[in-house]
Every structure is written in C-alpha cells, then in structure tokens.
Write a structure and sequence with these properties.
About 40% of the residues lie in helices and about 15% in strands. It has helices at about 15-40, 50-60, 75-95, 180-185, 215-220, 220-230, 240-275, 285, 295-300, 300-315, 360-370, and strands at about 1-10, 120-125, 130, 135-140, 140-145, 160-165, 170-175, 190-195, 200-205, 210, 275-280, 320, 350, 355-360.
Length: about 400
C-alpha cells in the first residue's frame, strides 16, 4: 500500500519566492483548465482532452506574452496541475452517477492566490533528489533544508510541496510499503481488544485500560480566543491583519498537530499488541450537531479510527466496526440482559438480572468486542476479514533519512 511521509521544510528567502511563483503558475494552469472545460460545456461541445489542454495551456501559452512566465517553473509542476483538474472532474462525474462512494462532490472550483493552502507536486521525471547533506533539491527552486524526523523506508515515487495556512512548508513523500518488512516489524498475536470511545475518557479498552482525553482544543481555548480577538480588531487589508491571521492559523495548527500526534501513539500501540480490534461506527456528523459539538471535534474520533484502519491493513490486523445502534452501554457483559438507557452522569450500573456491578465504559468496551465476534483460530489468525485501508501518514522511528534519488 502507499503512504505519505511528511517533513518540515525551511526554504530561504530566494527559495520562498521561487515556490510562490511555482504555486502561482500551477494555480493559473488549473484555472485555465477549468475555464476551458466550462467554455466547452456552455458551447455544448466535447470536453478537450488532456493532451489538447497540455498543448494549448502550457506549450503554446509559454510562447505568448501573457503567459511567458510559465517557463520560469518546472514543466512537471504544470502537467501535474492539469492532472489534478482532470482527476477533480472524474471524481465529480463519478459522484454524479453514483459510482463514487461517500459524500456528493461538486464541480471543480477556481483556485485563488488567497487560499490558505497551496501545493505543487513533482514526480520522478522531474529529477528531484535528496542531496548527500540531506537537503531536498527541487528543479528551478534549489536545495531546500529539510527537518528529517525519521528514515524513509523506500525510494519515494513523488513529492508534494505544501504551504499551509500558518505559512509553514512541508514535503510530502509517497512511499510504497514492503509487506514483508511490515510483517517482520509486527508479527501476529492472539490478542483481541474492544474500544469504547468517549468524552470523559478518550478511549476505554475491554481489558480495563482507560486512555485520558488530552482536550487540546479546550486547553488552548484561552490563547485562541485572544489571537482571534486581536485579528478582529485589525483593519481589513492591512499588513497587521495579515500578521494577526497568521498568528491565529499557527495557533490552530499547533492544536491540530498535537492531536494528530496523540492519535498516532495509541493507534500504533493497539495495532502492535492486538490481532483484532473492534470499535463502534460512530455518527460523528450527527454528534457535531448537538451541544457536544466542540468536545466531539476536540476528540477527533474519525481521525483516530482512520489511523486504525490503514495501520490494520498495512500490518495484517483486523478492524471490525459494529453498528452504531448496538446497545453496548445498556447490555450486561456478564449475562447479556438489556435494562435500557442511562443518563450520561451515571458511570456505574448494577445489572438487574445478575447483580453484577459494571463500570459503564468498560462494560461497553467488552460488549463492543463481543458484538464484533472477534474469534481467533488455532493459528492465531482472525476469522473476520480486514478493513479498507485509509492512506494517511503515520509515526515512525526517528533518524537520518535514506538517500533515495528519483531517476
């Protein structure tokens, strides 16, 4: 499977200017492609092909006075921008006819230079490489300083340069993982676990372990309010407002980074220690419409379950999602009796049938595991099939990177 490994970049002043030009050129080509498609639709003509768009919007446009500056950036960046527009239209049409699962997608929209996130992509034929000193050498940009936090397990197939809302730069490498190496890293085990996600505790496991909720957003709320208040007092269009906006974006990015790192730690530990994992298929979209919306967003359950999903697929584990309407909190894990819902402030319950005293969350976690039916065969392999992988970045060991060179 494919994963993304992201690293922080520190371009100098000249390199930031070159990256800004590359972002702008890629954005213009993308918008020109959307314009061409829309013009063809309004004229009731066939959509131009990718080859026709490449010739018209890149090759011929470079020879004109209005678009001559497209030659200042790598041609691969412009070609990848056209591919992004093509992919956006394919996803839109697939969503219209129902062949694409998930929420409905709208047609591609024009990109703006004021968008908080900008990105460009270099494939292998762009001849980018990592230097002997550990810098990322990009065509027409130069050797950019990289903060390596771990070793790349294989030669990347592409790299995406991202500028986020906080003005930070990242290099995102696409890596093809090695199944044999993954199996060696995490051998099979005969343990299974059930997880009950909540707000009092982030997660409670069926073995009685409780993982506290850090509440990153709640802890940073005072600082965020102050930064947002300062932003609201700045005059629109002024440089001070731009500085204040950057301060707000960086404060939110710090909270998001801390939450993501927290999700990686327990998800990796659970995957390494258990062959089968059971969770509830929570309706996060519905919960965020209640009075608990801020706390639900702060917990980030969807992100955590997504990490469990792709890590389970990578390391040969089983992730089972039970139905959201299963009465895990109302059922006695000892005798199976169901005695109805209880208010949220009731954290312990005594079964009316067998008299067993239960911790509400531990009882629910045990019932999640039972409802998932995580049977383990004699050889230690789970009977249930695995979940669909979700391609996201994951934590890893720290160290200096390998020296892959894209041919």
């Amino acid at each position: 499977m494919r994963l993304r490994y992201s690293f922080r970049l520190y371009p100098d002043h000249t390199q930031r200017g070159a990256l800004a030009r590359a972002f702008g050129c890629a954005r213009v080509v993308f918008n020109d492609a959307v314009h061409a498609r829309e013009d063809a639709r309004k004229a009731e003509q066939p959509f131009p092909t990718a080859g026709q768009l490449s010739t018209r919007l890149i090759t011929e446009a470079k020879r004109t006075a209005e678009r001559s500056w497209l030659g200042e950036v790598s041609a691969v960046v412009l070609q990848q921008s056209l591919r992004d527009a093509e992919t956006a239209y394919k996803n839109f049409f697939a969503s219209l006819n129902g062949t694409r699962k998930g929420r409905k997608l709208g047609p591609p929209r024009f990109k703006s230079r004021k968008d908080p996130r900008q990105s460009i992509r270099f494939t292998a034929n762009a001849r980018w490489h990592i230097t002997d000193s550990g810098r990322l050498n990009l065509p027409k940009i130069g050797a950019v300083k990289v903060k390596w936090s771990r070793t790349l397990p294989a030669t990347p197939t592409s790299v995406t340069i991202i500028k986020d809302a906080g003005g930070r730069y990242f290099a995102s490498f696409v890596i093809d993982t090695d199944p044999a190496a993954d199996a060696t890293r995490m051998p099979e085990t005969d343990r299974t676990i059930g997880i009950d996600l909540g707000l009092t505790h982030f997660a409670v496991l069926s073995d009685g372990t409780k993982i506290d909720s850090p509440r990153f957003l709640r802890r940073a709320e005072k600082k965020l309010k102050k930064a947002q208040r300062e932003l609201s007092r700045k005059q629109k269009g002024s440089k001070n407002r731009a500085k204040a906006r950057l301060k707000v974006a960086r404060a939110h990015a710090k909270v998001a980074d801390a939450r993501r790192e927290f999700h990686h730690q327990p998800s990796t530990r659970l995957i390494s220690e258990n062959q089968g994992i059971a969770v509830e298929n929570l309706s996060v979209a519905g919960l965020v419409r209640t009075r608990l919306a801020k706390s639900v967003h702060d917990a980030g359950w969807a992100s955590f379950i997504g990490m469990l999903g792709y890590k389970a697929a990578r390391y040969g584990r089983t992730l089972v999602k039970i139905g959201r309407f299963t009465p895990t909190s109302q059922t006695c894990s000892t005798c199976g009796a169901v005695d109805g819902p209880k208010p949220l402030h009731v954290r312990e319950r005594t079964c009316s049938a067998c008299g067993t005293l239960h911790d509400r969350d531990i009882n629910a976690a045990i019932n999640v595991k039972t409802a998932a039916g995580l049977a383990v065969s004699a050889c230690g392999a789970p009977v249930r099939p695995g979940a669909i992988p979700a391609q996201r970045e994951e934590t890893g060991s720290h160290g200096f990177p390998t020296q892959p060179r894209a041919a």
